[in-house]
Amino acid sequence: MSDSSLLAQKRVLVVDDNAINRKLAVAFVTRLGMISEEADCGPAALVMLESTHFDIVLLDISMPVMSGEEVLARLRADVKYKGLRVIAYTAHALPEEKQGLVDAGFDDLLIKPINLKAVESVLAACLKS
Description:
Layout: H1 3-7, E1 11-15, H2 19-31, E2 35-39, H3 42-51, E3 56-60, H4 68-76, E4 85-90, H5 95-104, E5 108-111, H6 116-128
Parallel strand pairs: 1-2, 1-3, 3-4, 4-5
Helix pairs in contact: 3-4
């Protein structure tokens, strides 16, 4: 199965407090044939996840009010989100930071600044696993 057919029509929630970063990720996700929605903070993302099914969440780490790690902890603690793939969407790229995110329970990492190929690769790998 090709990456494009694997990604087509999957639902992605992009969560980032920075509007430009959010819009860029949404543009790439949409270009890959996926359905995207966006949230500008952790609490808004949790509300959206309560009412809408998503296959993947691209979750910024450094956000005011509630960090991406806090959002992830809430999702991982709730059995209804057991199959939800959550990708850390972050500029935190030092090796120890990456390992800490994996240890926290993220399925994968997408390091900013992003490009279309990186988005496609990470999303496809996440859905294949």
